Amino acid sequence: ALRAAMSRAMSRAMAVFVTRRIPAEGLRVLAEAGGCRVQQWDSEEPVPRAQLLAGVSGKQGLLCLLSDRIDREVLDAAGPSLKVISTMSVGFDHLALDEIKKRGIRVGYTPDVLTDATAELSVALLLATCRRLPEAIEQVKNGGWTTWKPLWMCGYGLSNSTVGIIGLGRIGQAVARRLKPFGVKNFLYTGSRPKPESAAEFQAEFVPLTRLAEESDFVVVTCALTPDTQGMCNKDFFSRMKKTSVFINTSRGAVVNQEDLYDALVSGQIAAAGLDVTTPEPLPTDHPLLSLKNCVILPHVGSATYATRTTMSVLAADNLLAGLRGERMPHELLL
User: What Pfam families does the entry give (predicted)?
Assistant: First the structure.
């Protein structure tokens, strides 16, 4: 009888809500955990707000995605039973951290595992943008390709260039590591503080944001979204860049002032831009940026390899279970 009572208490203590259909391996980890009761919004599309508020009610654990806004309203709906939030993302700007900390809720996230995939995508986007690949493909399809012309479809190469990286964290370093063999001459970086141990591998120089804008042939944004970085790539920033510079953002859309970026691209203030992130997401199909030939926009697919998304889902599940059991999480965000 005691064992049955303990098992009932355990199952009560491990009711979790999963906000989306995630890779099967992550769900299997939860399903195979003894006494874990899973309720899931089983769809490729985001959970509607009303269903999120109802689903999280009385739960001990929440496994969410970066597209789920976990604010005070959600936390109130969950009630005091909520002990752990596990987000299947490296970013956490969708979580109301102050409010979460106030309530003593633990938070798990998934850094490291998506570094390589995001860095690969950043390099792919940079190359596609600077060598005008989407534009060139379009010319093949619409009959614009007539004969070989010396200056037709010319872009910009990485050889002997200066690359500026905003945010030399895990992903920023992984991008630099991949770009170095292309013959990049100089790496510059900026951030909240110098990181000499990380920068040494690329002989990267720590500079103010203004100097990075002025001297870089390619600017790659890989920083986290914080109050300090919000909107920092703005009119002043773009006006300092070279007219031949290419701007790449694979971090968060809100780091960029999109109106200012549009003006810089239209006026020829900068050569081109490649974005994997926008504000909002998805970007409306009539958005002005989508009318520009020199702007390549992807639908936030930085971590989209089968292996990476599977690993992310398993780590998110492992974080959630460890938190519910009062154990050390594989990756906890220390608030």
Answer: 2-Hacid_dh, 2-Hacid_dh_C
273 and 179 in a common domain: yes
Q: Which residue has the tokens 């914080």?
A: 226
pLDDT for residue 7: 47
Clarify whether residues 235 and 90 are in a common domain.
no
Number of domains, the chain: 2
Looking at 94, 287, 300, 331, which residue is catalytic?
A: 300
- pLDDT in the model for residue 9: 53
Do 186 and 218 share a structural domain? yes
Q: Is the pLDDT of residue 4 over 70?
A: no
pLDDT surpasses 70 at 164: yes
Q: Is there a catalytic annotation at residue 300?
A: yes
Under 8 Å CB-to-CB from 52, ≥6 apart: which residues? 19, 41, 68, 74, 77
Same domain, yes or no: 286 and 311: no
Mode of pairing for the β-strands spanning 218-221 and 295-297: unpaired
pTM: 0.87
Shared domain for 76 and 189, answered yes or no, is no
Return all residues near 101 (Cβ < 8 A) that are at least 6 apart: 335
By DSSP bridging, strand 332-333 and strand 106-108 are antiparallel
- Domain of residue 323 covers 1-111+306-333
In the prediction, which pLDDT does 11 show? 46
User: Among 9, 16, 139, which Cα is nearest to 84's?
Assistant: 16
Residues 137 and 246 in one domain: yes
Residue-wise pLDDT tens digits, 244-260: 999 999 999 999 999 99
